[in-house]
Amino acid sequence: MDFTAPETWGSAIYLWIVPIVLGDAIFPPIPSEMVVITGGALAADGHANFWLILFLAAFASWLGDMAVFMLFKRRISHVLDRWSWGRRIHRGIHEAIAKAGRSSTYGAIIGARFIPGGRLATSSAAGIANVSVRGFSLCAGLGAVLWAVWQVGLGYFTGSTTKLPFWASSLIGVGVGLVIGVVVGLIVTRRRGTRSPVDEPYDGDVPQPE
């Protein structure tokens, strides 16, 4: 199997987008941007359907946001504390909130996904703050569409303008997106603290992470 051949990636990219973008909702280091941008580059090369890539990316982003939001809104996030890996994820969520802030405004729900860790922070903070399900769902959906358009469009633009192999266009797109995200993240988070500013209701039967 030739992993540099666009035909190889074009037939598999649809299967990767949903689980990777969905997983990124809880564990931000998962490279969802790379997969979605690669999808855009493949679309520019004629080896993937642009609109299907866009739909899958937006749907997976919205679904992941809703999962995190409901986890905290229903006060069942302590379930994570039953396993060591879950406690690490739980601590990571609060670290993301500490860095990105606890804002649960509708504007933050839409826009924070464009900074590192912002998607996880706003979804969990909105759940803790008891934002309405309908309001969060609509804003998360709009944010997911905007994010998908940006990521897929970035891959498509680099692929169609550079005329390089899809993997090279993908790397360029990821680099550009990473630089922009880091700059925006530094501007937004430079005054944040190191401790999560939110407190969750505590279930006394479940041990808290150390």
UniProtKB/TrEMBL annotation:
Protein name: DedA family protein
Domain VTT: from-to ranges: 30-156
Species in which this protein is naturally found: Paenarthrobacter nitroguajacolicus (Arthrobacter nitroguajacolicus)
Keyword terms, alphabetized: Cell membrane, Membrane, Transmembrane, Transmembrane helix
Pfam families reported for this sequence: VTT_dom (PF09335)
Topology versus the membrane: Multi-pass membrane protein
Membrane-spanning residues: 12-30, 50-72, 136-158, 164-188
Compartment(s) where it occurs, according to its Swiss-Prot or TrEMBL record: Cell membrane
InterPro entries given in the database record: DedA_domain (IPR051311), VTT_dom (IPR032816)
Any one GO cellular component localisation term in the record: plasma membrane
Family statement drawn from the similarity comment of this UniProt entry: Belongs to the DedA family.
